[in-house]
């Protein structure tokens, strides 16, 4: 995966925005990889200092001071975004260059293998409940399958879709062992199947 830096700090707290901006300034200062920053580093530094000053004034101030602080934050956000896009344009996926910039790197998408999978027989014969306890951010749906012969790819049957962490499967054959697996759809990406969990249906 090609390395990219995070360019948006709009959702970060004021304190984190200051820290991340300062880290970027330190990383870019004197860095031979980035000799023509979009925002001059002296301006980026001054804008960050101005934001810090306006935070202090807004703490005991009124509406006008809060508005001034918010406007200063927008400038800091804009500077960070512009500089981050500049860094990405220079790096072109080079991780060493990206890491030297002082910006945080985007993290690769996690493949959730869902190891915490369990199935329990219910009082009604042939019915089980499947628990999938992991709850990843951005979850859209859980996709459940079951099989009596898990080694055969075509043997897996549809067990249902759910957003909840448990799902009841009904009318299963009694007295046989079945294997269950779960995958999740996160941010429109279908992620890997869990390791199958087996249970003898009663």
Task: For this entry, give a set of tags.
202 residues; alpha+beta; Immunoglobulin-like; 2 domains; five-stranded antiparallel beta sheet; three-stranded antiparallel beta sheet
Number of self-contained structural domains? 2
Provide the structure class.
Answer: alpha+beta
The value of Rg in angstroms is 26 Å
Low-confidence sequence ranges: 110-115
If you average the pLDDT, what whole number results?
Answer: 88
- Tell me the span between the first and last alpha carbons: 47 Å
H/E element sequence: HHHHEEEEEEEE
Give a short synopsis of this structure.
The protein is α+β, with helices and mostly antiparallel strands and 202 residues long. Helices cover 34% and strands 22% of the residues.
What does this structure look like?
The chain has 202 residues and is an alpha+beta fold. It folds into 2 domains: 14-100; 117-200, Immunoglobulins (Immunoglobulin-like), CATH 2.60.40.10. Helices cover 34% and strands 22% of the residues. The chain is built from 4 helices and 8 strands; from the N terminus they run ααααββββββββ. α1 (14-28) packs parallel to α3 (63-91). The two termini are 47 Å apart. Mean pLDDT is 88; it is low at 110-115.
Describe the SSE topology:
Layout: H1 14-28, H2 41-59, H3 63-91, H4 95-100, E1 117-121, E2 128-132, E3 139-147, E4 157-162, E5 166-169, E6 177-186, E7 189-190, E8 197-200
Helix pairs in contact: 1-2, 1-3, 2-3
């Amino acid at each position: 995966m090609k390395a990219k830096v995070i360019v948006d700090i709009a959702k970060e707290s004021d304190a984190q925005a200051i820290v991340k901006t300062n880290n970027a300034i330190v990383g870019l200062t004197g860095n031979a990889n980035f000799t023509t920053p979009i925002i001059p580093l002296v301006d980026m530094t001054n804008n960050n200092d101005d934001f810090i000053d306006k935070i202090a004034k807004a703490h005991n101030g009124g509406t006008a001071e809060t508005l001034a602080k918010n406007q200063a934050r927008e400038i800091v956000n804009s500077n960070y975004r512009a500089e981050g896009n500049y860094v990405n344009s220079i790096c072109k996926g080079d991780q060493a260059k990206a890491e030297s910039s002082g910006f945080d790197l985007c993290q690769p998408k996690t493949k959730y293998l869902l190891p915490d999978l369990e199935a329990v027989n219910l009082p009604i014969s042939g019915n089980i409940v499947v628990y999938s306890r992991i709850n990843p951010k951005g979850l859209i749906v859980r996709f459940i399958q079951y099989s009596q012969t898990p080694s055969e790819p075509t043997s897996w049957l549809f067990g249902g879709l759910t957003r909840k962490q448990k799902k009841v499967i009904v009318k299963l054959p009694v007295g046989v062992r079945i294997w269950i697996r779960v995958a999740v759809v996160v941010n429109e990406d279908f992620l890997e199947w869990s390791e199958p969990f087996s249970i003898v249906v009663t």
